[in-house]
């Protein structure tokens, strides 16, 4: 199949199985691995959370990856066309799935811009300035700097997608993924040399079964679901580029291995280091999300003295690479959705996608300055919080639940099983069917109910 570029309407294809695995892993490895996984691991007893997460990834997670990848390859379409190819009555579910990457990509690029700013700051500014309490707040509320870094991050993402699947996405992943893993290993090794880091390491890797709780299970379940890029339209789109007879089962499993590996390394970098400075897992857990990434860690890096600029720059480059690989996947999914839905040239669909992303990104970013008076989810919330809530907390679980019902009860699992067996040895066929028909829907409902309740303060994760 001919390579896709901006001039061609011929469907793209991966050059081989490993190109697809790297792309899928690059999509799965993102900001959630870097700032949310370590916080959850610290909060829920370290080793017990790791063990639970591992079990969930290689049961529920890989099962859902198999479903989405196979749906894409069997239909040779992105999400809207994929559902319609099997039953046109379910096309509305495809539209819901298509909305997810269009909502996520603009605000993801805003956060990617934050990371790019910090990576550059460790070259241009002093660690003390970066660690100051006002640095992050002044940056995100600025009326120039925050927009500049968002647009720069978008520009890099869009250039890669413009080059197409083989010349752009494959080649960039071939560089960024090994570099990301190498930097994660080096930083992890360095952090373990810090005084007191061994106590943090033991807390992080040693399971304490007394720590297991329903809250831990829900936290690990939600992290796994969002980390693997499920229900974002990405895996269906990437699966549609996969050639017949490629081994889907082993590919999905390896994507899960990459996700677990990078998540583990992220925790290995952050939890022992933060443990040294803050003294306990609970103290680390209190510094969630942006507070951990852009507040606590720069303070810790400053304490490293002469090594602070090096460690800070390498760490934020690592996070930047992770953010870029996911943003590229999200943007590619959007371009593919527009192309499949309209039949227009890839060039035209790419330009439309870029225009939408830039306009929406600027609008969401205004929520930190000119539109900061809009607090859609209550006191202190921003437009970015609203977009995150609608996409991650509401739409993604609904799409995943609908997909399980669609495959498990409408078109029947055998349709996708036959496609999986083209090039794959599906040894756990009955277990996969049971997961899709019965277990996954229950787990997805738990995610949906729990995280909506958490958003409105009824529970805490």
Automatic annotation (TrEMBL):
It is found in: Membrane. One of its GO terms (cellular component) is membrane. The chain crosses the membrane at residues 18-37, 49-72, 93-116, 147-165, 177-204, 224-243, 255-278, 306-328, 349-369, 389-411, 432-454. Keywords: Membrane, Symport, Transmembrane, Transmembrane helix, Transport. Coiled coil: none annotated. It is a multi-pass membrane protein. GO terms for molecular function: symporter activity. Pfam families: SNF. Belongs to the sodium:neurotransmitter symporter (SNF) (TC 2.A.22) family. NCBIfam families: Na_transp (NF037979). This is Transporter. It comes from Slackia heliotrinireducens (strain ATCC 29202 / DSM 20476 / NCTC 11029 / RHS 1).
């Amino acid at each position: 199949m001919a390579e896709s570029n901006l001039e061609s309407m011929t469907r793209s294809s991966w050059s081989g199985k490993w190109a697809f695995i790297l792309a899928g892993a690059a999509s799965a490895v993102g900001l959630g691995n870097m700032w949310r996984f370590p916080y959850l691991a610290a909060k829920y007893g370290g080793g017990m959370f790791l063990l639970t997460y591992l079990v969930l990834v290689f049961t529920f997670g890989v099962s859902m990856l198999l479903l989405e990848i196979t749906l894409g390859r069997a239909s040779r379409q992105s999400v809207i066309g994929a559902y319609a190819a099997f039953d046109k009555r379910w096309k509305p579910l495809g539209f819901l799935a298509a909305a997810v990457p269009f909502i996520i990509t603009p605000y993801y690029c805003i956060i990617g811009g934050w990371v790019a700013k910090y990576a550059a700051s460790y070259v241009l500014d002093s660690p003390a300035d970066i660690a100051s309490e006002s640095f992050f707040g002044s940056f995100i509320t600025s009326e120039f700097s925050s927009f500049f870094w968002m647009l720069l991050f978008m520009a890099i993402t869009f250039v890669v997608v413009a080059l197409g699947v083989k010349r752009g996405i494959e080649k960039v992943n071939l560089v960024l993924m090994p570099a990301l893993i190498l930097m994660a290993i080096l930083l992890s090794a360095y952090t373990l040399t810090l005084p007191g880091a061994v106590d943090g390491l033991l807390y992080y890797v040693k399971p304490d079964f007394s720590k297991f709780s329903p809250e831990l299970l829900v936290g690990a379940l939600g992290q796994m679901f969002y980390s693997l890029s499920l229900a974002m339209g990405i895996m269906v789109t990437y699966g549609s580029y996969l050639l017949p007879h490629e081994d889907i089962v082993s590919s999905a499993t390896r994507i899960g291995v990459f996700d677990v590996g990078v998540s583990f390394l992220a925790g290995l970098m952050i939890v022992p280091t933060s443990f040294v400075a803050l003294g306990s897992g609970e103290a680390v857990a209190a510094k969630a999300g942006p507070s951990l990434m852009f507040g606590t860690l720069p303070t810790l890096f400053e304490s490293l003295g002469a090594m602070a600029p090096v460690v800070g720059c390498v760490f934020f480059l690592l996070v930047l690479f992770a953010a870029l690989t996911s943003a590229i996947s999200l943007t590619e999914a959007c371009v593919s959705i527009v192309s499949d839905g309209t039949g227009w040239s890839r060039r035209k669909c790419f330009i439309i996608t870029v225009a939408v992303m830039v306009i929406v990104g600027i609008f969401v970013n205004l929520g930190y300055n000119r539109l900061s008076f809009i607090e859609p989810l209550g006191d202190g919330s921003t437009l970015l919080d609203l977009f995150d809530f609608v996409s991650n907390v509401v739409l993604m679980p609904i799409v995943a639940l609908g997909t399980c019902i669609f495959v498990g009860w409408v078109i029947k699992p055998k349709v996708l099983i036959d496609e999986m067996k083209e090039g794959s040895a599906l040894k756990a066929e009955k277990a996969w069917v049971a997961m899709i028909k019965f277990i996954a829907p229950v787990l997805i409902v738990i995610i949906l109910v729990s995280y909506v309740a958490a958003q409105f303060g009824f529970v805490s994760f």
